[in-house]
Specification:
With about 325 residues, this protein is an alpha+beta fold. It has two domains: about 110 residues, no CATH class; about 170 residues, Phosphatidylinositol 3-kinase Catalytic Subunit, Chain A, Domain 5, CATH 1.10.1070. It has a six-stranded mixed beta sheet with strand order 1-3-2-4-6-5, sandwiched between helices. A three-stranded antiparallel beta sheet has the order 7-8-9. The protein starts with 19 loop residues before the first helix and ends with a helix. It binds adenosine-5'-diphosphate, magnesium ion and zinc ion.
Amino acid sequence: MTARCLVCLAEVRGEGDYHPRCAKALFGSTRVPTIDLELSRLHTVAQAMVGHTSLSGIQRKVSVGLTADRATLRVAMEKGHFILKPQAQVFPSLPENEHVTMRLAEVAGLAVPPSGLVKLHDGSLAYLTRRFDRTAEGKKLLQEDFCQLGELAPKQKYEGSAELCARVVRRHASEPLVAALALFRQVVFAWWTGNGDMHLKNLSLLRGADGLHRLSPAYDLLCTDLVVEDDQLALPVGGNRRAVTPRQWIAFASYCGLTPRATARVLGQVHAALTPSLGLVARCFLPEEMKVRYARLLEVRARTVGVAARKVSEG
Ligand SMILES: Nc1ncnc2c1ncn2[C@@H]1O[C@H](COP(=O)(O)OP(=O)(O)O)[C@@H](O)[C@H]1O
Ligand SMILES: [Mg+2]
Ligand SMILES: [Zn+2]
């Protein structure tokens, strides 16, 4: 097996785990930093960080940053520009899963922050993403998740619906239609990729440096169906958590206020993402058995998305 880039998954020739341009996109420099991080220590650090950073959620994650000379990536309590998610204890291969799903998201037209895998000291792979809630100068941008915006308690993050999200966007986004389009894309993508963990805290509005509130780039995307058998949508669409029909997708798009033309464009783009996505899944770092299941799921669900795209453009 030839070596694959830990960012883009294409072949790398010669030395190194990254194409220079991919290292630049992730680390900000073609020189790959030394990774001064170790799995066994990270779990302790992650625990210590609870309450100290703005990170919340279940999977262990730590705030990390580059040293001033950009030579080393290490734990950084307050000023880290990255979030690192190491291997989890309960579910296998989550970093590899999140990594390939982020690549799929790119192909499907979602806005995503730079991300990739890094090899820790012990040889294990961890998922690394650059924070989108910081300006270049390191100032924190306001990020509010849909739980807060929908005036629900954090523990109610599974009690929403796709329609509730559409109302949040209508009410709080500076350009509601632009945000509704991005939301529709994210919800369709979550279903296509078997993501049962897209709950109200995995969607946010971000206030840009220009003061406008937009849907934030996508984060926490993964195919939970690979680790939780027959996982269902966290946010039902038209009351449905499993087999969302073409008709229900079109009804949700209409609820979002999208024109048939815009709806067809999004659905068509997700459908067209299937072929390149199958290539990405084949090359990704998941175990073979998970790759097979992921590919099958994508194929089956892309059919529904394709039918919905055709239906809505035929009127
Ligand atoms: N790239 C990112 N930039 C800024 N904030 C992020 C980014 N990724 C995640 N977050 C924030 O960190 C929180 C936890 O990250 P998430 O990926 O959702 O981890 P978990 O699997 O623990 O839920 C998110 O709810 C979000 O607010
Ligand atoms: Mg999350
Ligand atoms: Zn690459």
